[in-house]
Write a structure and sequence with these properties.
CATH topology of the largest domain: Aconitase, domain 3
Structural class: alpha/beta
Number of domains: 2
Number of strands: 19
CATH architecture of the largest domain: 2-Layer Sandwich
Strand order of the largest sheet: 5-4-3-6-7
Distance between the termini: 52 Å
CATH class of the largest domain: Alpha Beta
CATH superfamily of the largest domain: Aconitase, domain 3
Helix content: 25-40%
Length: 467
């Protein structure tokens, strides 16, 4: 029997096979770090008198706690300021490369690494952050780990793990016009549920996936964790190689040729068997929006908010009723009738250059609706910001009435000044819509940059076809 893509990468990094049900020992090629989950790991090394095993395979940036305006002024939040200065001191002490706030290569941890060519096919990549699955878009086995595991990787460059199960999600056929990668992944999560991929590595396959750009593939893999999966992967191909070629950390010359030769072997064998398999017809997909308080509570934009009494499963019925109460929505309301206060375009899910281009193309020549309080456009990395400004996208956003910010996690989560207030309703291109995720009492609808931009123009949840 053949092997899946995930199984091949696992086998290539196996240091020791576990006996009698014990976990395997896996070599880790790259660990990404940020200010939130690293302090305890550094302190653990310090107390044990250890140094990083391979410091050149660790790299850090500042993202979660960073302000996106007035970055040259003292951070107004004392806790955030402490976390950022602690990371800076720790990286200096232990010799870890850091891209701090204001650095040209600073950005969200899952955005800056691919741009630099640090993320490559066949690698094992970890970070103390659940959305590490983003890097699986390159054919890497990438997943989030806990703080104690961060310390273990720093000390040994290995990790003890039991092999993951494998799952194939096939998206076959052509995507309709106006349907994006964000719509694909929201539809997948709505279909299989937030626990549908639990314990599995999801490999996204099929014609619709193969035709996606690298930015779009990263969006898909980014939200694998929202389906409960440990990781998401897409087999590398010519699209992957073209993206990587010439980037600062990509191989060059003869080493590039050898790398590509290996990368081309990273695909699931024809006779490989997945533990689970799901298929979607791309032609059936529409722009998707969440109405509830988890990423699985979503529906096509043309649908209505569900009526809990019509849901047969008791658990799902109670969850829907609870979500609608928090979201302040009446059952049966058309999704397109829902008014929005705030629009957020950014995050490690949808803050890349293609996302900003898409939003700008829709906003150009328009102005935000009077009912919209604010529109925040936050690039996922400083390099994306510089590219956007080179293309004049920042001027389009400003003319539209949006706020053009510096790179960071921003309103994806309530750990920096960019927060919602209680009752404020936001359409967001981020990855989570949990209660309070964007700020205490805030109400979040997840959507694509295209839907977010159209919504900013009309004031109610909309897609470009509505303009």
């Amino acid at each position: 029997m053949g092997s899946t893509l995930a199984e091949k990468v696992w086998a290539d990094h196996l240091v020791r096979k576990g006996d009698d049900g014990a976990p395997d020992l896996l070599y880790i090629d790259l660990m990404l770090m940020h200010e939130v989950t690293s302090p305890q790991a550094f302190e653990g090394l310090r107390l044990a008198g250890r140094k990083p095993r391979h410091v050149d395979q660790l790299i850090a940036t500042e993202d979660h706690n960073t302000p996106t305006v007035d970055i040259d002024r003292p951070n107004p939040d004392e806790t955030s300021a402490t976390q950022l200065t602690t990371l800076e001191r720790n990286c200096e002490e232990f010799g870890v490369r850091l891209h701090p706030l204001g650095d040209a290569d600073q950005g969200i941890v899952h955005a800056f690494a691919p741009i630099l060519g640090l993320t490559q096919p066949g690698m094992t990549i970890v970070c103390g952050d659940s959305h590490t699955s983003t890097h699986g878009a390159f054919g890497a086995l990438a997943f989030g780990i806990g703080t104690s595991e961060v310390e273990h990787v720093m000390a040994t460059q290995t990790l003890s793990l039991k092999p993951f199960k494998t799952m194939a999600v096939n998206v076959e056929g052509e995507l309709p016009e106006g349907v994006t990668a964000k719509d694909i992944i929201l539809a997948i999560i709505a279909k299989i549920g937030t626990g549908g991929g639990q314990g599995h590595v999801i490999e996204y396959r099929g014609e619709a996936i193969r035709k996606l750009s690298m930015d779009a593939r990263m969006t898909i893999c980014n939200m694998s964790i929202e389906a409960g999966a440990r990781a998401g992967m897409i087999a590398p191909d010519e699209v992957t190689f073209e993206y990587l070629k010439g980037r600062p950390h990509a191989p060059e010359g003869e080493m590039w040729d050898k790398a590509v030769e290996y990368w081309k072997t990273l695909k699931t064998d024809d006779d490989a068997v997945f533990d689970k398999e799901v298929t979607l017809n791309a032609a059936d997909l529409q722009p998707f929006v969440t109405w509830g308080t988890n990423p699985g509570q979503g529906a096509p934009i043309t649908a209505t908010v569900p009526v809990p009494e019509q849901i047969a499963d008791e658990t799902a019925r109670n969850a829907a009723a609870s979500a609608l109460k928090y979201m302040g929505l009446e059952p049966g309301t058309p999704i397109k009738d829902i008014p929005v206060d705030t629009v957020f375009i950014g995050s490690c899910t949808n803050g890349r250059i293609e996302d900003l281009r898409e939003a700008a193309a829709i906003m150009k020549g328009h102005h935000k609706a009077e009912s919209i309080h604010r529109v925040l456009v936050v690039p996922a990395s400083s390099r994306v910001r510089l590219q956007a400004e080179k293309e004049g996208l920042d001027r389009i956003f400003k003319d539209f009435g949006a706020e053009w910010r510096n790179a960071g996690c921003s309103m994806c989560l309530g750990m920096n000044p960019d927060k919602l207030v209680p009752g404020e309703r936001c359409i967001s291109t981020s990855n989570r819509n949990f209660e309070g995720r964007q700020g205490k009492g805030g109400r979040t609808h997840l959507a694509s940059p295209a839907v977010a931009a159209a919504t900013a123009i009309r004031g109610t949840i909309s897609c470009p076809a509505d303009l």
